[in-house]
Amino acid sequence: MSTPQNPAGPQGIRIDTLRKRYGSGDTAVDALKDVNMTVAPGEVVGLIGPSGSGKSTLLKCLGAIIEPSAGRMTLGGDVIYDNGWKAGDLRALRRDRIGFVFQAPYLIPFLDVTDNVALLPMLAGVPNAEARQRARALLDALDVGHRAQAQPSQLSGGEQQRVAIARALVNRPPVILADEPTAPLDSERALAVIRILNTMARQFQTAVIVVTHDEKIIPTFRRIYQIRDGQTVEETGEGRAI
Amino acid sequence: MISLAARDIAHGLGRCVLTGMGWGLLLGVTFSMAGIYRGMVDDAQALLSNSGADLWVVQKDTQGPYAESSSLPDDAVRGIRALDGVAQAANVTYLTMQVARGDTETRAMVVGFEPGQPGEPPFLIAGRLPVRSHYEAVADRMTGYRVGDRIRIRRHDYTVVGLTRRMVSSGGDPMVFVPLKDAQEAQFLKDNDAIVNNRARTAANPALNRPGVPGLLDAINATQTSNHNVNAVLVRLAPGASPDAVADTVRRWKHLQAFTVAQMEDILVAKLIATSAKQIGMFLAILTVVSAAIVAFIIYTMTLGKMREIAVLKLIGTRNRTIAGMILQQALGLGLIGFLVGRIAAELWAPFFPKYVLLLPGDAARGFAVVMVVCALASTLAIRVALRVDPAEAIG
Lengths: 242, 396
Hints:
By secondary structure, chain A is an alpha/beta fold. Chain A has helices at 55-62, 90-97, 113-123, 128-141, 157-169, 187-204; strands at residues 13-22, 29-39, 44-48, 70-75, 78-82, 98-101, 175-179, 207-211, 223-228, 231-236.
């Protein structure tokens, strides 16, 4: 398979002093306090932390789903937030610059595997034939090309997650945000998903953040950000070969 | 860009078709109600056109013979025949009653007519017209009679010698045509017991049974056992004659009421079936509202079942208009299925209605437009909910 070049350039993710406050006055809650983080292109980092530590809030801020209260975020070399959104169309930003992988694959049940993946480029205005061609190439790379015409309900859990990864990658975003992508999978399949994410990150020069609680996969990260009380602490992971 | 709505419908085709069928059957009832109204109007118009008359002459100050009772002497027709512009005029009687065949009874309008004159059945689909002066009948096929059947009207038996169709009263009752004399007898002649009692009552009245006036009592009794009334005179005009002018002449000089085709149509359609039409209109309005509510609930429920997918679609950058378009197209698709099922159902069950159900293509086109508008409006609730879905729900 030919390796598409990442159009985002050499930068991955950079977050500086990001804050998020919910509510105001006496009831205000600081979900994120001075979060700092960098992820290089082609790198997969883990984001761990106990429940309520702010992982989901950080993911939503990075995913341009909720607006931070202050700070600065750079994705693929572009400043998307600097004490206010810099990107005009957040929907287009999510579509073109960020890939999402969820805890469950959340494939669209009424689209076949190819169209589940091809939908994103189609939404971006890519002609259907070209979008499907791009989708099939990715599905082949992820070893689910033989299920291209199947419905999501006909796939195993591991296959569905690989299709979800293909969907996250198909627009060649500089960033992938994976929220507990291995939670429903057994050890073997969970490690397979992380292996794929690593391979694809390197291949597409995509910066990947994996939010996880999964003890099985935590040792595979070279770098881990632990988030505690809304603040990140960088740790060196084991980087165990998988 | 692929059609998300088409894919979703194709994915759950069985469920969608079943839902559409359920809704379509309700639409079928709605279409049938409209068809019943059209049938009533058509029955009224058929009644007028099949009578072959240009004018209806009836009792003064009445709106007979269909909307009100009317009685006029059967010799009035002679004076009417002599008027300028009149080509033909004939007595007719109309009486809605129970006609028996064996042990079963049928509600029918018994029409007394004169052969070869306005008022006789304009065409037959089986048998022949009556050729004997008495006790032969032609029946509309809706009566269920066959040629050769014996039917009973009042005190006499009649043989069905011919069948016709689309000959119904304004109330939808099928017609049975019998010779005028028989019809007059059926309508006006009392039974034997009543005649005997009446004669006794007359004989006991000293004013009518005077000793010095021989023959008076017999003359009075004779008037009580025979009747020379009819309900209307049907007039066919000569070519070029003005219906309004002839009607004016009848009103002025004959002291009778005369109606043109347009006036009679107004009586039948605007007055006689007005209440029924309002009733049906009200029912149609309620059915439309119920249909709209049901399709709104269906679309709303279908959308609620896709909230996670909608959240994912929004998260990956799908535009609001694409999501709204998906829901709208699904609503219209459901409307199309419902319309087709409803239309087919209405066509299939229409012949089983006791009254004529007329399903017009124009009504179908209007119905289709209404269904589509109702579906589009019904989808707005679901679209509103879908557009409020937070993409963050995809993450949890």
